[in-house]
Amino acid sequence: MLVVALGAVGCADPTVSVAHGPREYVAADYPGVLNRWTRSKSLLSLSDLDDLLTVTATYEAWDFRWAYVVKYAEDYRLTIDQRRTLLDSSLAETRDVHRFYVALYGTKPRWTDLAKPNSSWVVRLVDDQGDETAPASIEPIPRPGALEQRYFPYTTVWRQVFRIKFPVTVGDHQPTVSPKAKWFGLRFAGAEGNQELHWDLNPEEAATVARGEALSRTF
């Protein structure tokens, strides 16, 4: 069986910054921010003409969450206090978990249910430094509604949808994504093949993080 992994058609994915801090987004900025934090790939069997796995995922980073809350607050006409509370709680979660919104499709749907122990796919958080981390939780969204379809428009009735969380640190506060990483991503692996979605980090930010780590070791 000849298996080929195909990325999304179009321009190269943008680099991203995981730096915290205030943003100045308005609701109209959301589609652009969503695009910046979303990746998509397909794993095809050319011999059988099967779509083994098509995955689209959005990393719900600090930057993404800020734009999401701004958009949500305008759509649902939240008060300033309600918006602030929602934003604070959403950003606070980034200290503990890396969260991804994942929508996937395969020709055998029962094999692509990531939440079941007999799924044919194992998902891991990985980076270019060799770090590999299992999910802390995989939450199925069995019937995505208007909210999911509006804010994640690649959501369709043909795809299974999950929110997957990974710990930010493991063991003795060891980060699951290395401060030296040039990229991090999701790996989907199984008997039928494997593929990865990558989020490339802004080179200047990666260098700054590396220097900061070196300074912390010096002092």
Write the layout of secondary structure elements.
Layout: E1 3-7, H1 30-36, E2 38-45, E3 50-59, H2 62-75, H3 80-93, E4 97-105, E5 122-127, E6 132-133, E7 137-140, H4 146-151, E8 160-167, E9 169-170, E10 174-175, E11 183-190, E12 193-200, H5 203-218
Antiparallel strand pairs: 1-2, 2-3, 3-4, 4-8, 5-6, 5-11, 7-8, 9-10, 11-12
Helix pairs in contact: 2-3
Unreliable residue runs: 45-49, 207-219
Radius of gyration: 18 Å
Shape: globular
Number of helices: 5
Output the structural class.
Answer: alpha+beta
* Beta-strand share of residues: 25-35%
3D architecture notes:
By secondary structure, the protein is of the alpha+beta class. The chain has one domain. The protein contains 5 helices and 12 strands. It has helices at 30-36, 62-75, 80-93, 146-151, 203-218, and strands spanning 3-7, 38-45, 50-59, 97-105, 122-127, 132-133, 137-140, 160-167, 169-170, 174-175, 183-190, 193-200. Strands 1-2-3-4-8-7 form a 6-stranded antiparallel sheet. A 4-stranded antiparallel sheet has the order 6-5-11-12, with no helix packed on it. It has a two-stranded antiparallel ribbon with strand order 9-10. A hairpin with a 4-residue loop joins strand 2 (38-45) and strand 3 (50-59). Helix 2 packs antiparallel against helix 3 (80-93). The radius of gyration is 18 Å and the shape is globular. 27% of the residues are buried. The model is unreliable at 45-49 and 207-219 (pLDDT under 50).
